[in-house]
Amino acid sequence: MTMQAKSEPCISLRSAGPADLPAILALLERAQLPTAGVAEALPNFVIGLSEGQIIGVAGLEVYEHSALLRSVVVDQEWRNTGVGRVLIERALSTTRERGITDVFLLTTTAEHYFPRFGFTCVSRDSVSSEVQASAEFQGACPASAVVMHKTLGSAPAKP
Description:
Elements: E1 12-15, H1 21-30, H2 38-41, E2 45-50, E3 53-62, E4 66-74, H3 83-97, E5 102-107, E6 120-122, H4 129-132, H5 136-140, E7 146-151
Parallel strand pairs: 4-5
Antiparallel strand pairs: 1-2, 2-3, 3-4, 5-7, 6-7
């Protein structure tokens, strides 16, 4: 008996727009993730869709040379299908394209998930001051949240 490999999910990705905000907030609330600052950072969010429905999201708060990866969530029915990986890879690709060198995140549940993307645990005082001033660091996430960091290579030179 041969086992068939699980196929990649059929999803599409696009940047979030204002009309997506209610669905994004609902998805975050169902996952008990912070919603503070989402509306302001919405232009830097990527959403995953299946048959027109938002099934996952990953957001970025972009600062001068660093970014905060936040609001990474996949609808319960789509977990363990690769949707989260695709969303995170798209967000990290976006940061590289913008020349961002440092990406941080806070997590209370996924510190064992993010190392596969090159994130390592760091102390709060190693986080750039602009990221520390974000709503996530100022109280949206609990002080007990694990802080993680990934250093990106420099962005390719543009012709």
